[in-house]
Amino acid sequence: MKKLLPQNKALLILIILIIVTVFIMTIDYHGKMYLKWLESIVLRAFSPLNQGISIVTDNTKNYLKAIAKFKRVEEENKKLQEKIEMTLQENAVLKEKLIAYDRLKKLLELKESFSYEMIPSLVISREPGNWFNSIIIDKGEADGVNKNMAVATYSGLVGKVVSVDSHTAKILLILDQRSAVGGMIQRSRDIGVVKGSESNYCNMEYLSHDADLKINDMVITSGLGSIFPKGIMIGKIVGVKKENNALFQKVLIRPEVDFTKLEEVFVVKKP
């Protein structure tokens, strides 16, 4: 009995070896078919996963490309914005030069229209606490400016010099109530005195009831006196009032000069 057991084991091992050999031979002959079948099953099983991975990969690539493109566009926009800002600054400078040129051209035209020497000046400050009554210019005695000289722009009369230092001068505007200028109605040649008021307007006094006055008549300097040359524009008549018991008409004048925007002026140097 004990002798039969080893023989059975040997037989069993032989049979297993034969089966394995046959299986290997079968795979060798038909392996390609089995592998294709197995590959098909694997591909079908993992196809959704592969598609998902492919989509994620593609999206990741596109996202990275979009980020890189966005950075390039952002840098280009930054450079364009810098160029636009530089262009705007250059345009502002050129515009300011053009405005200054236009003002200086008109000032030169005013200078040529009179036979007087004129000293070009810049307004450098205004009297603190009294915005409209006086200004300071950057010319003084060293430049030939003296007290009681007239000051004007291309628009019209500004005022007169009331005090002078070496390199600056104070100008009393015609709006000041202390100011008095000999005026003439350009159309009718009637003469009166233009004085400052409490507002941004002037009053023209000493015009008789018979004086020929109309709204929008231009008032110019009469030339009477030793300060203001004849023919400088002062302003236009915007109001006329006649009272029966009064000796003179009440006339309101709007100055031609915009005193809130004074930048350049001429000091009129009479011979």
UniProtKB/TrEMBL annotation:
Pfam families: MreC (PF04085)
One of the record's GO cellular component terms: plasma membrane
InterPro entries (alphabetical): Cell/Rod_1, Cell/Rod_MreC_2, MreC, MreC_beta-barrel_core
Coiled-coil region list: 63-97
Transmembrane segments: 12-31
Keyword flag ATP-binding: no
Residue ranges of domain Rod shape-determining protein MreC beta-barrel core in the record: 123-269
Signal peptide: none
Domain of life per record: Bacteria
Gene Ontology biological process: regulation of cell shape
Keywords, sorted A to Z: Cell shape, Coiled coil, Membrane, Transmembrane, Transmembrane helix
Keyword Plastid: no
Function: Involved in formation and maintenance of cell shape.
PANTHER family assigned to the protein according to its UniProt record, in alphabetical order: CELL SHAPE-DETERMINING PROTEIN MREC
Family: Belongs to the MreC family.
Protein's name according to its UniProt entry: Cell shape-determining protein MreC
Organism: Candidatus Infernicultor aquiphilus
Organismal lineage: Bacteria, Pseudomonadati, Atribacterota, Candidatus Phoenicimicrobiia, Candidatus Pheonicimicrobiales
